[in-house]
Amino acid sequence: MLQRAKDGFNTRFEDGPGTNPEELLGAAHAGCFTMALSLILGEAGFTASEMNTKAEITLEKKDDGFTITKSHLTLRAKIPGIDDAKFRELAGKAEKGCPVSKLLKCEISLDAALA
Q: Does residue 115 contact residue 77 with C-beta atoms inside 8 Å?
């Protein structure tokens, strides 16, 4: 079981110490996407030597309360032997196909680049 330290307004909406559910969701999305891409790359005959992904979650106040409206994935990868077009094709498949992407009901965007 995961426990969060010091839940409160400042840890969720300000710069207080601790984490919040949106940060945890972002970490889950980045991890899930990276794992999905690793599988897709392997099926296509490629192995990444490095993949670094972060997810930025946007939380907005709407009429009915707060809503997660976006998840922006940023990936930087080193994948020997792959060209940029194939890389973007496979990264796009992972973006749409990872289970967390399928779960989220918000805009999902991807900035993927080979290092």
A: yes
Cα angle value 92/41/82 (rounded, 5°):
85
Q: State the Cα–Cα distance between residues 92 and 110, nearest whole angstrom.
A: 8
Question: Is the pLDDT assigned to residue 71 strictly greater than 80?
Answer: yes
pLDDT band at 59 (very low <50, low <70, confident <90, very high): very high
What are the structure tokens assigned to 29, written together? 């999305």
Chain segment 29-49, per-residue pLDDT in tens: 999 999 999 999 999 999 999
Q: Which of 3, 75, 10, 89 is nearest to 46 (CA)?
A: 89
Alpha carbon distance 29, 23 (integer Å): 10
pTM of the model: 0.84
